[in-house]
């Protein structure tokens, strides 16, 4: 295993570092509102500060979203397997006022990304991919 690969694995295992990366991604990437890293079994690893602290029910994004993301990724994995399309790359939901996506980061980690209001699925997908890139290549 290369030193670069080892460094990334260590970063993704440190909730404080991941939380800082999620905060940075939400601040730098237009059209992204929240980002949460979870385990595939639904446990919160880290979240941007907005999804941990906002009122009016949004503090539950990290807690409840983690369980829903695990279920969504599992369903997506089964659909991808059923139609022989390879490994799941993402699951994106379009709602009336924005989008939410679940992105497998590894065999054990998922990334939940939510959009700002009125963001189209195309813009959301491009923005979410930038968040994924920020997490996987934080020094760029």
From TrEMBL:
Pfam families: Robl_LC7 (PF03259). It comes from the Bacteria. Gene3D superfamilies: Dynein light chain 2a, cytoplasmic. Residues 19-115 form the Roadblock/LAMTOR2 domain. InterPro entries: Roadblock/LAMTOR2_dom. This is Regulator of Ras-like GTPase activity (Roadblock/LC7/MglB family).
